Amino acid sequence: MFSDETELIQRIAVALIRRKERMGVAESCTGGLIGAACTSLPGSSQWFERGVISYSDQSKSELLGVPAGLIALHGSVSEAVATHMARGLLAHAPLDWALACTGIAGPSGGSDGKPVGTVWLAIAHEGKLLRAWSEHFGGNRHAVRLATVHAGLSALAEAVEERES
After folding, report:
1. How far is residue 20's CA from residue 46's CA, in Å, rounded to a whole number?
2. 3-state secondary structure of 144
3. pLDDT for the residue numbered 106
4. Distance between CA 59 and CA 134 in Å, rounded?
5. What is the pLDDT of residue 1?
6. How many domains does the chain have?
7. Residue 106: left (phi > 0), alpha (psi -120 to 50), or beta?
8. 11: buried, middle or exposed (CB in 10 Å: 19+, 13-18, 0-12)?
9. What CATH number does residue 136 fall under?
10. Tens digits of per-residue pLDDT, 125-163?
11. Which of 34, 60, 115, 164 has its CA 20 to 30 A from that of 75?
12. What is the pLDDT of residues 102-120, one digit of tens each?
């Protein structure tokens, strides 16, 4: 299931172990798939600290500190919410890196402004947002979720390696 991500995860692991850093994930639309991919690598306990599945708006607020008013204003699938999810995870856990995602995997739930396949991702490091971006993935629910895993891990691998140079 995660064979395409093995090389990305190994790159992340090598960089984090070298610097004695740890990471975590705050996932909504992927429902834990990013954490599962990371922990599929033997020895992941050396660098992977935790994953939070904050699927509902209430859980985003309770577990990650995303203000309910922010969700009401921008919607749970937004740059603001993804950013707060990543920063919130860093604030609530002994981590150096956080990867967050929130999206509409489908088949329902989309709108004209946010169609099915819309995903927001964010990466934070040491309390600072490094990157927040949106993607639009085609395909069915499974394809959208797997594409989100790949996009998040690809960007994280680049960010972690960039910090090394």
Report:
1. 8
2. helix
3. 96
4. 21
5. 47
6. 1
7. left
8. middle
9. 3.90.950.20
10. 998 999 999 999 999 999 999 999 999 999 999 999 998
11. 34
12. 999 999 999 999 999 999 9
Residue entry with tokens 């891990």: 153
Contacts of 126 (CB under 8 A, 6+ apart): 90, 96
Tell me if 90 sits within 8 A of 65, measured CB to CB: no
Q: What residues contact residue 83 under an 8 Å CB cut-off, 6+ apart?
A: 100, 122, 124, 129, 132
Containing structural domain, residue 125: 3-164
As given in the structure block, the two tokens for residue 71 are 């969700």
Query: Sign (positive/negative) of CA torsion 135, 137, 140, 145?
Result: negative
pLDDT in tens, 54-81: 999 999 999 999 999 999 999 999 999 9
